[in-house]
Amino acid sequence: MNIARTCLANKKKAVEFIIDCSPDIGLVEDRLDRESILRLIIGAIRGLECAQTITRGNALLYETSGEEIEKWLAERLSPNIIEIDPGQDEDFYKLLLFSMLIPYKMRVGASRATITEFTDRSKSRGNLQIISDHFIGKIGEIAFRKFIRGFGYDTDLDWNIGTEMDKFKSDIISLKRGDRTRRVNRIVSIKSSKSLESAYAECPRNCHPGVFVKTILPEDFFLGILKNISSLAKLLNHIKDFVGEDDYFSELLTELEGEVAPLPSIPNYVVGYFIPGPLSFREKGSNLPFIGEIREGKHMEYCGNLKFSREDWQKLLFGLFKG
Questions:
Q1: 113 and 172 belong to one structural domain
Q2: How many domains does one find in the chain?
Q3: Are 292 and 232 found together in one domain?
Q4: Is 231 strand, coil or helix?
Q5: Which pLDDT band, with edges at 50, 70 and 90, does 14 fall under?
Q6: Distance in angstroms (rounded) separating the CA atoms of residues 192 and 130
């Protein structure tokens, strides 16, 4: 079956197309919710992980089938899902503290991050947006750390808040294997995104390699964290002390408490990695399907072109460790 690019860019039409393909998504339904699975499949088709492009007249079509999607679910998505448990993972709470501190450091010039939006540098971001952006941007590093432990390696995450705006630091400073630790001499980029429909991995200039992670995080994840540690109940009880006698606001409090779910384990799809080269670099102002204008020069590669097999990861990690 095939779908036109314009239809694939429309989420509703893309979901209808996937349903028509009739893939069996049961393999991952115990780990991911249905909506996230469908969004990830859209991204896999757009990024040519489980599809190929054909031309028919002047039209560019994306061709796939239920069998191809099922193969991708079994061989690529399922083995590369890494779950982070907020109740058990120390790095998760380090990340939370790091993210909450970042906007304050930024405004006094103690961070190399900017107060403008990642996607549009002309727009200023509020504190909550900054916290969310950095939380999502760095959670992929935690997922990657857990991922490489499955290959016998480990790394210490860099929690320093630097002031150097002119260069990108490696997201992996060193690698551990057994009782040996070695410094990584390459600039490794680990990018994470909550855009599950994304077709492309990306990394800054001068990186080698670029690792890409998609994180499945609910929009209200911060309230979910508060509920996990009972702080949401304390907040709502404090509000109730002031408005509890008002029937309308009492109903709102009850409704909010029922709507916010505790934050469960956070699934992350480690999509793969690529080695940037001249052909993967996109100049500022260039256009890409499903994205539009690129607002800053960087390397971008179709997710379908990323390396992802166990052998690929073993080769990369051995090379980084060996130096």
A1: yes
A2: 3
A3: no
A4: helix
A5: very high
A6: 15
Considering the domain architecture, whether residues 150 and 290 belong to the same structural domain is answered as yes
**CA atoms of 217 and 225, how far apart (whole Å):** 11
Same domain, 204 and 276: yes
Chain-centre distance for alpha carbon 130: 16
Report which of 62, 91, 51, 76 is spatially closest to residue 212, judged by C-alpha positions.
76
Same domain, 192 and 276: yes
- Read off the pLDDT of residues 270-310 as tens digits, 9 standing for 90 and up: 999 999 999 999 999 999 999 999 999 999 999 999 999 99
Task: Convert 251-294 into a string of H (helix), E (strand) and C (coil).
Answer: HHHHHHHHHCCCCCCEEEEEEEEECCCHHHEECCCCEECCCEEC
Q: Which domain, by its residues, includes 180?
A: 85-217+264-322
Q: Is 234 left (phi over 0), alpha (psi -120 to 50) or beta?
A: alpha
CA terminus-to-terminus distance, the chain? 45
